[in-house]
Amino acid sequence: MSKEVLVIGGRSSKLAVAQSTKVKELIExxxxxxxxxxxxxxxxxxxxxxxxxxxxGGKAVWTKELEDxxxxxxxxxxxxxxxxxxxxxxxxxxDGFEIGAITKRVDPSDCLVMPIDSKYKSLDDLPNGSIVxxxxxxxSAQLKRRYPHLKFESVRGNIHTRLKKVDDPESHYQCIxxxxxxxxRMGLESRITQxxxxxxxxxxxxxxxxxxxxxxxxxxLRNILSKIxxxxxxxxxxAERSLMRTxxxxxxVPIGVETKYDASKKELLLKGIVVDVDGTKAIEEQHxxxxxxxxxxxxxxxxxxxxxxxxxxxKTILDSINLDRIH
Length: 327
Known about the structure:
Blueprint: E1 4-11, H1 14-30, E2 34-41, H2 44-47, H3 64-70, E3 81-85, E4 97-102, E5 110-113, E6 131-133, H4 137-146, E7 151-153, H5 159-167, E8 175-179, H6 180-185, E9 194-195, E10 210-215, H7 219-225, H8 231-247, E11 255-262, E12 267-275, E13 282-290, H9 294-312, H10 314-320
Parallel strand pairs: 1-2, 1-3, 6-7, 6-8
Antiparallel strand pairs: 3-10, 4-10, 5-8, 5-9, 11-12, 12-13
């Protein structure tokens, strides 16, 4: 008897294909009656590598072309689900789409990568005026608080492209900042020089997790994906995304988070930070909650923290950001 085919869509970078392959393995392991086929597509965000993301459309540049395929009128071209890095997914999806599952998170931390032969081992070692490569305002804003003597410049491209740029003997970057999860998924853990916890840098909302997007109300896919979803990761990421949505932030504003969920006590602790672009002002707060309804309570936690941060001045910082003068 032939197996039913599920078509998985994702971006065409090596990391994205590795993530789609992982979801394929998870589904086929739980449901041997299905065979998953992967479609890899270049999105607008992949095609425009010369500009920082905040300058040409934010998170939708990673998702729109793939979302179009979920509803393609030609059944042969249609896909059934999309595998995203969750941090790239807008907190408000267009009508007709939903997050069907969030898989187990890999280390959500940011990390430092030095050139292969660098004599430096940490940001503390770098001399005045050293150039740190990162296209993330969240990262540069937080690091400017601690390292005002360093310079921060945009660096785009996939993981291998960025590693090549920093390793080039002619490179003007003394180091780059990346998500640890991407290096781990690509088997490049050895390139991590230093990992940052929240005392140095809060990570991005959803970082390290994969979000699977489906057509809204697709019960068949909901049931399948419920078997590969991770409860702890889902609770944490729903809270983080609720925080960002309530603060009206996107990938272009400096909102950082750190989340811990104690499953035995059902206790969720969400920490958040909003930093101005220059790294001179910051609002840092936390909120905890007991989780009874995983979806509703997680989202309530994020909303409560956002309101607490707004009252402390976070909204004033976010409203004052002028993207044209960043970097």
